[in-house]
Amino acid sequence: MGTPARLTPLLEQFDWARERLTNRLAGPFVDSGNGTDVEAPALTDEEYLWEPVPACWSVRRHSAGPGPGAAALTGAGEWGRDTAPFPHPSPPPFTTLAWRLSHLGELLTLRADHTAGGHNLTREDYRVAGTAAGALADFDASAAAWRAALAGADDAALDTVGYCTYPYGSDPEDLFLDIVWWVNQELLHHGAEIALLRDLYRVRGQLG
Prior knowledge:
There is one protein chain. This protein is mainly alpha-helical and 208 residues long. It has one domain (8-29, 37-206). The protein has six helices and five strands, in the order H-E-E-H-E-E-E-H-H-H-H. The strands form two sheets. It has a three-stranded antiparallel β-sheet with strand order 3-5-4. A two-stranded antiparallel ribbon has the order 1-2. Strand 4 and strand 5 (79-83) form a beta hairpin. The longest helix has 27 residues, at 176-202. The protein is globular. The protein starts with 7 loop residues before the first helix and ends in a 6-residue tail after the last helix.
């Protein structure tokens, strides 16, 4: 089965954004955008969990309980991610690099399962990583799972409402093509946020 023509640019965009974020986090270099390599040191545990402002939402050990303003920690295993039931706090809390990367890994893992897997994973099944190395490995596996799910989509799938049954979004009511686009923008905008947090961490001694 060939890749549908309208899916090809979205796959290329996903692959580019995935590679760029991976390089930005793991180093040793990232493309500046004009073909020049810029040094990008590997993410450390300290930076992964860095809270730049008070009352951040982050990932924490379940034994420690949720952070300020959060109602619970979601996720399986020793670690969980700060969360609260709908309606969420307004204005939204500032979230750490760990929170944002975990959010990406979760949405990719669960959407892959609800597209081409058992259609039964929940946020409580997702194992939140408490270390930088674990988070990088998880992101790679999560992105690979979503990419593999997309590889099986034909034109009929792209035009199917509810082809992805992910229960924490509008997926059951949307065309699958729209969901593919939405996941790309999640990766792009959270990837940009993560890159900015890396820049802020690098100059943290000069802030304020």
